[in-house]
Amino acid sequence: MAWKDNEGNASKPQREDLILLRQRGYVTHLIEVLDYKSEREKWQSYFNIYRIVEVLWIIDWTNPSDSAKADKVFGYPVKYQGGDVMFLDTMPTFGQHWQNQGGSMAFQERVRTMLDLSAKSDNG
What domain of life (predicted)? Predict the structure, then answer.
């Protein structure tokens, strides 16, 4: 996964962290970080910082499901923008919505159910 020239942001996720990517109003990918730190490509380009990741789930771009809409996955209107890695537990809107509903563990179960990840995780 490539980042714009922002090594600090690319270095935020730790190995084995999961990242939900949101694009165009949908949750589009669930990825797991496989490496320990960000690396910089030798050539100069706009997206020259990268992390090695594994895609655990990706949206069906030809027929996106309503259940993958970010507002539905998160359970409230999502306004996050900018492309930066954000930790859910430190985001005020996430905490306000999920604090009385079981917190991040309940959210993880919601994501697993909504993106139909339970069958995939049971098999590998």
Answer: Bacteria
Question: Does the pLDDT of residue 23 top 70, yes or no?
Answer: yes
The residue behind tokens 């050539």 is: 43
Q: What is the mean pLDDT of the chain?
A: 85
In DSSP notation, 40-97 reads E-SS--TT-EE--EEEEEE--TTS--GGGBHHHHHTS-----SS----GGG-HHHHHH
Average pLDDT over residues 96-101: 92
108, 102, 97, 100: which is closest to 75 by C-alpha? 97
Q: How far apart are CA 18 and CA 116, in angstroms?
A: 16
Position 12 pLDDT exceeds 70: yes
Q: Which domain holds residue 116?
A: 2-122
Q: How many domains does the chain have?
A: 1
CA distance 60 to 13: 25
